[in-house]
Amino acid sequence: MRSVRLAAAVATLAVVVWRLGAGPFVDGVRAVDARALLVAAVIGLLTTICCAWRWTVVARGLGVELSLSAAIAAYYRSVFLNLTLPGGVAGDVHRGIKHGTDVDDVGRALRIVGWERAAGQFVQALLTVVVLLVLPSPVRSSMPLVVAAVAVAAFAVFLMARVRTGRSRWARLRSAVAADIRAGLLRRRALPVILLASVIVVLGHAVTFLVAARTAGVDVTASRLLPLALLAMLGMTLPSIAGWGPREGVTAWVFASAGLGAQRGAATAVAYGVIVLAASLPGALVLVAGLLPRRRLPLVVRANGATDA
């Protein structure tokens, strides 16, 4: 399955290059300037802090302590790995395993990361639907059907959750999932933080996309760009090659559908990729620091100056 997802990402990128050529990629890289990099770095710091904050809240709800400073460093490393390794989720898996090793419970730590990411993506999808219902976009005419489909799916999940299945494996799994959601996401002190942090993260990524579009020479109003940005961000959740592939394909398509040109869409996606990667570079420092051997400090100092380790 993993090879199929990566093959799809490679095929998407190949189609974009075949249809548009290398020009948009070169233009997107050349357009990036110091101002765009600085703005992306500041926004990246804010979104990383919010993601780390959300992670600590979910972890606390599931009975695991995690300091905000450690979470920020780990999240920077996670974002950097997601943007440099195939698949787009390697950093999150590494983050969960590393945290699980530290707390001697890898399974729970991976569940925490999964719920934390799922909460963020749920809020992103919800905001996207709201914006696409309000502002003009290439998919606005299809939005009532999308909303109806989502409502039907949500109702079906609700009915499945209400079905009594005794002591079967499905019943135990359903109970475990429900317990995780109640404790990690829906607690009175957790839910407002998760919602606030997730909204800030989505808006931060959208603003970064708008900066990339301006950098690539797209001169239209923010209200026209915002729906395109959110659609492109949905494409970024798909499996990719170190961030590349679906991002360029989806952005080229939405820009072409909006009458802005597929080439400018691809150039915007490339510029976005470059500035986001640059903003994640603190994660590379965290990664390198974690690989360096740590000097072992003496535990006991004798009166004559000798030490016992």
Structural description of this entry:
The structure is a single chain. The protein has one domain. Helix 2 crosses helix 12 (262-279), helix 3 (34-61) packs across helix 6 and helix 11 (246-257) packs across helix 12 (262-279). The protein starts with a helix and ends with a strand. The protein is mainly α. It has helices at residues 2-20, 23-31, 34-61, 68-84, 90-103, 106-134, 143-162, 169-184, 191-215, 222-235, 246-257, 262-279, 281-291; strands at residues 300-301, 307-308.
Write a compact overview of the structure shown.
The chain is mostly helical and 309 residues long. It is built from 13 helices and 2 strands, in the order αααααααααααααββ.
Identify the notable features of this structure and list them briefly.
mainly alpha, two-stranded antiparallel sheet, about 300 residues, about 0% strand
Shape: globular
Q: Mind describing the biggest β-sheet?
A: 2 strands, antiparallel
**Secondary-structure-derived class:** mainly alpha
Radius of gyration: 22 Å
> Based on DSSP secondary structure assignment, what is the total number of beta strands?
2
**Average predicted confidence as pLDDT:** 88
Through-space gap between termini: 49 Å
The strand line-up of the biggest sheet is 1-2
Helix and strand sequence = HHHHHHHHHHHHHEE
Helix count from the secondary structure assignment: 13
